[in-house]
Design brief:
The protein is an all-alpha fold. 56% of the residues lie in helices and 1% in strands. A two-stranded antiparallel sheet has the order 1-2. Helix 2 packs across helix 6. It is flat, with a radius of gyration of 38 Å. The termini are far apart. The relative contact order is 0.06.
Length: 452
């Protein structure tokens, strides 16, 4: 009896040690759900669970370090909080990791508590199962209309076909009666009085004919003139691009500033097409698409992932080795907004000098469709477009109308001093408007401003 109790106690102690060791090794002390939030907020810029990004894949990192290096979670705590200090202390493995990953310094996280790090490690050891995604196809299959609805539809189709068949039979009968009537002697008298040529009709009604011809000539002339005036106006034009890029996802959902990609719009004449290196600022670490609620109808995850791979092919990026191969493929974008050679337009003049004036003017004219970024005044609500299209006419009349209605801000320091004398003159010239000065009043309608 004593021997059994002795072995029982030893067994309990062994089980307790095993469980505590297992918990320590596998990071079970933390909360994986909270760890997932912390991981996404602090780690996903450089790490993923199942593949190397900037840094190594982190799934099972606790067990891997224990098995391969004999290191416990205390080492991971030191590395995460201040890897620079750990390397400076001469830690061999810390310096090996630094050398292995091209001497790319990992960000330090002194703000993370020991509990936070335990939660992150618990997430890398035992990630919470993803919630099952709703299969759109299965849902559609499960929402097939009830049999009685199908029967009702079939009945309507059959009745319609019978009605059409009856109508056709009635028309055939009437045509047969007309043929018989034409073959009778009752129409002989009518045939003698019938006009037998077009010239007789024209001679009889030539005034009406000339009037109709005049009207047709006027309509034809107007049609040709209208067609000529709209040559080169491509409002609604939205060509397919070699790499699919959704402004709705980037500018709308992700709130990326327009000028982060189109940087020259602020200080240059032309708003350039961003280079592929600009795309790689983000997509070096974003190699797949995981936002189901942003998907455009008819497109799935495989489609978006494939477009990201096109970016890698264009820049010569090898995501597996996390380095550039030097083999690039230029992307032939299709230009959408293209001013004629004889038109001068300066983006910086509108984006910087006229920014607030344009926004105020647009919102005043469109109280139910206000904008918050000056770009939208010309390019439309770009943050709602999956495929970019030309939102306005971009004709000379369209530009002139904007210059006539956009009020210049004369209260800022530069305009107030530079246009001081002009301001006083225009106050007297336009007293009914309270001295308001629009762009046309300061030379906005001069030919040389836009044509040179």
């Amino acid at each position: 009896m004593i021997s059994w109790r002795k072995h029982y106690k030893k067994g309990l102690i062994a089980i307790g040690l095993l469980l505590s060791t297992s918990a320590s090794i596998y990071g079970q002390d933390g909360d994986p759900k909270n760890g997932e939030k912390l991981f996404k907020a602090n780690c996903t810029a450089c790490h993923a669970l199942d593949k190397q990004v900037v840094g190594p894949a982190l799934k099972g990192v606790v067990d891997r370090l224990k098995t391969e290096q004999g290191l416990d979670t205390d080492w991971l705590h030191k590395w995460i909080k201040d890897n620079k200090a750990l390397r400076a202390s001469g830690d061999k493995y810390a310096n090996e990791v630094f050398e292995k990953f091209n001497k790319t310094e990992m960000q330090v996280f002194p703000n993370l508590t020991d509990k936070d790090i335990d939660d992150i490690l618990a997430y890398t050891t035992n990630p919470p199962a993803e919630e099952p995604k709703t299969d759109a196809k299965a849902t559609a299959a499960n929402t097939v209309a009830a049999p009685q609805n199908n029967n009702t539809t079939s009945s309507i189709v059959i009745i319609s076909l019978i009605a059409i068949a009856g109508l056709l039979v009635w028309i055939l009968i009437k045509l047969r009666q007309l043929v018989k009537l034409g073959q009778s002697e009752d129409l002989a008298g009518l045939n003698e009085t019938r006009v037998k040529s077009f010239s007789e009709i024209y001679a009889k009604y030539h005034y009406i004919g000339k009037g109709l011809l005049a009207i047709l000539a006027i309509l034809a002339t107007y049609g040709i003139w209208n067609w000529i005036m709209w040559i080169g106006v491509y409002k609604g034009y939205k060509p397919e691009q070699p790499i699919y890029f959704s402004h709705k996802i980037h500018a709308g959902e992700q709130k990326i500033d327009c000028q982060l990609c189109h940087s020259s719009a602020k200080y240059g004449k032309v708003s350039e097409i961003p280079s592929m290196n600009v795309c790689m600022n983000c997509h070096r670490t974003i190699s797949e698409y995981n936002a189901d609620h942003y998907m455009e109808p008819g497109k799935d995850k495989a489609f978006y992932d494939g477009e990201i791979q096109k970016i890698y092919a264009a820049t010569g990026w090898d995501p597996a080795k996390q380095q550039y191969t030097g083999k690039t493929q230029p992307v032939e974008w299709t230009r959408i907004h293209n001013m004629p050679d004889f038109v001068y337009f300066n983006h910086s003049q509108h984006v910087v000098a006229g920014e607030q004036a344009i926004i105020n003017s647009f919102n005043k004219k469109n109280p139910d469709n206000k904008i918050d970024v000056v770009c939208k005044a010309c390019h439309g609500k770009i943050d709602t477009m999956n495929v970019v299209q030309m939102a306005n006419d971009f004709t000379m009349g369209w530009c002139i109308e904007c210059h006539r209605t956009t009020e210049v801000d004369m209260n800022n320091g530069y305009n107030k001093e530079y246009f001081k004398n002009l301001h006083e003159k225009l106050k007297k010239q336009y007293p009914k408007d309270g001295g308001k000065i629009t762009v046309d009043a300061i030379g906005g309608l001069e030919c040389g401003k836009c044509h040179y």
